[in-house]
């Protein structure tokens, strides 16, 4: 009796809600923990990065303009889809070398993390905003707003780390371009499939797989990118990327100690928020 | 010509005592520089030399950072918040007690009208210290966790447009959070910062908590690049902000930047036009237009443009330009010859590119640095005067037809510090405020500031906020 021959997946990029191959036609080999061939991942180019920024910018107005309640609903929908694909993610993490129990725990944590952030959408305004008691007859209040297009360099924790950097960026209305973990890019594309089926508008999250050293300088220097999350950037790249980010004064979140299983706090959300203060006279 | 001329009403300068030369304020004492270099600080309204100011060298900066570190480690960092609060309250009171003297000194040194230094700058300076004094013992309630820690030693560089106010914006929150500071005032306006050093002594502030190093760009660079500081706070031009961001790259230094702006002041056809004109005048001619959040681009709805410009010109003709110490003066002196050159160059570019220039008939003093209030009409978005920050009393007028076009044009700038909206329709204000990419939106008012209200920019106007609870974040390890 012959075993069934599996249908393998083609891993592509995720840009503007579609799954294109790299315009460069390149790919790179992703191996499992034992060094055996797993798949060819797309090797994104500078042009793919620019296309992704265009898609993210196009999506920004619509996504940031939605009500916080609606964004929260969509993020929670992502968690639902993620839950439904638990087995697939466990398999992919195991292929990257995690033991069954650890892979399963990581997927659980990733789903829970996503749920946690989903609940923040309609609370950020109350927690990060303020009514300001100024010394004069003015109605004065400050509200948090998304900063715009964020380029995220994901860490090598391929699912929990990715979710931990992605969700806080988009929950407030930012859109983003994510450079996936270089050695372990496959769960990021599978996550993109989750996002694509979760009512998340195309372009809100764009995922590039490829070489960090090749892609990140273009994103850091891109004049239509507003902020940079360096979570997964190796030490030797931090300085040049920060220097490039100074060109249009991007907000930069430096890499910190990577304890992705710890309580995330609110710092990753507030790093990509602006505060807008509005004044109006009070009188009759 | 008005019916009644104003008689001169100059404020007496006798109350101010300016020394012929100043040393550096380091570790609670006046310290001579390790170097020889000094520059002359002049009164921009008369070009008279006011004093000689020391140019701190890298060794002086080293010395100041070491003093700040020592004070942070031994005194100010460990001190209970309630005691830090009391010191800040003391400083606030001393500022109030000496407000007239400081207002006069500010006007002499900076060229701004006494009416503004007395009624705007000084009250706000004291208010900032009062506001942040109250935070010093309440930091666990600020929303940054139960045990927020100070960052350490802050290097602060401030501009010449609001010398004492910018000092207050920087020093008050830093000290409240338990940090110590090394502050570099602008080279042309160091006198009030040096007077503030004396106030620190009168308050018995522990030595080294506040250090003031004077000098120009080189001193500033030595400060922000010093490896011994934990945080950089800078207010100034976007270009210098970029350099500082580059220099901080790859370090652990935290950074907040308050940079340039090119604010749109948007007037809809239903606005109360006379009120709007007052707001426009305040928006661009306040402090000679030396304001990063000045409303330098007037966007007016086409159907009322002719009438509004007409009223604006009539109002501009009543502005009194001249002696900053005269209590009737509306527009004082340009801060320096260099700045005057820049304003002239950009205004000339406005004419060259086809915009129409107008200034009221206005006699300028023969000595000092002066520029008449100026408005450009028929400005296109591509003109330099509509894109570049002029930092002077120069207004560019553009028009729009629909609210959507107003949003588009207002946001068509790399800056995002402030914006203004003038309409009687509340729903339109909120609609517009939501869409403007700017950190401060003034609706039916302009250029209002308060220590309780966060201030700061989007995009290339910098990052971080000053004022309010948000202003604490820059100085806490969160």
From TrEMBL, chain A:
The keyword Oxidoreductase applies. Keywords: Oxidoreductase. Residues 23-252 form the Aldehyde dehydrogenase domain. Pfam families: Aldedh (PF00171). One of its GO terms (molecular function) is oxidoreductase activity. This is Aldehyde dehydrogenase family protein. It comes from Thermomonospora umbrina.
TrEMBL record, chain B:
Residues 30-477 form the Aldehyde dehydrogenase domain. Keywords: Oxidoreductase. GO terms for molecular function: oxidoreductase activity, acting on the aldehyde or oxo group of donors, NAD or NADP as acceptor. It holds the Pfam family Aldedh. The active site is at 258. This is Acyl-CoA reductase-like NAD-dependent aldehyde dehydrogenase. Coiled coil: none annotated. It comes from Thermomonospora umbrina. It comes from the Bacteria.
